[in-house]
Amino acid sequence: MAQVVGVRFRDVGKVYYFDPDGIPFGVGDRVIVETARGVECGEVVTPNREVDDEKIVKPLKVVIRAATSEDLEAVRINREKEKRAMEIGRKKVAERGLEMKLVNVEYTFDSSKIIFYFTADGRVDFRELVKDLAGIFHTRIELRQIGVRDESRMLGGIGICGRPFCCASFLGDFHPVSIKMAKEQGLSLNPAKISGACGRLMCCLKYEQNAYDYLLKITPRAGTPVNTPEGRGVVADVSLISGVVKVRLDQSEDAPPRAFRRDEVQPLRGPAPEKAGQNAARGGKSPSAPKPAPKPKKEKRPSARGSR
Question: What does pTM read for this prediction?
C-alpha cells in the first residue's frame, strides 16, 4: 500500500497518481508536479488515500509543491498565449497548403514547449511548418496528430440526447465500442442513430452492455425449445429488459405465441421439434442417430514384378 493523490491536467481526462510526500491535499487544490512532458500544474481530484501497489505505475513521482499565486498567474498567461498561437498556427497551415486541421494548442507550464494538436486523413509532412513556428515562438514545437474522438473531447459539444458530450464532461478514458453491442441491445443499426458527432459509435453503448450480457445469459434466445407451465414450445420473441418471453406452443402452432415470464420457461436440450422434423423430411440424419461404421480398408497385394 502507498499513499497517493489523484491529479488531472485537463477539465476532463485521465487521472494520474503522485506521491503527496506526507502533505495533505484536498479536492480542487492546484499542485506542481513533474511529468513526462516536463513540469506541469494540475488539479487534485482525489485526496490523499491508500492504494494497492498493483494499481500504481512506478516509479511514483513526488508532488513538487502546492501551486502559488505566481504559478496560477503563469497558467493564466499561458492560456492567453495559446489563443494567439492557434491563430498563427492556422495561418501558417493555410500558407503551406497542408491538408490538416488544427484542433488545439497547449503550452507547458514553463513555456519550454508548445504542442499543436491536429487531425488529418493521412500522414502529413509538417517539417517546414515546424521550422516556421519555431522561428516565430523561439521554443520547442511539437505537432501531435489525434483522432476524431479526441477532437470531440477537446472541442466539446451537444450530443443527440441534448446533453454535453460524455467524453468532454466526465469520461476519463475511451472504451472500445462495437456494432455487436447495438445488435444485442436491440437498437437500430442505422449509422445516423448510433453514431456520435465524431462519426464513431456512441460511447454510451458501453454503459449498459454488462447488464445486457447478464440478461442474455439467463434468457433463452429465439428458436430455443423450452418447457412452459402450459407445455412445450419454441421461443418466438424475447424482451430482455421486461423479461417477457413469447413462446409458440407445440400443441397450438397456429395460435399466436403466448407470453411468459423469464423464470417460467425452462430451456430444453436438443434441437427444436419442428427443426428435427424438417431434417427427417429432407432425408437428413438425426443428431442422435449412430454413425455408420467405417468400411474396412482393402489390403494391397505385393506386386509380382521384382525391383530393379
Answer: 0.71
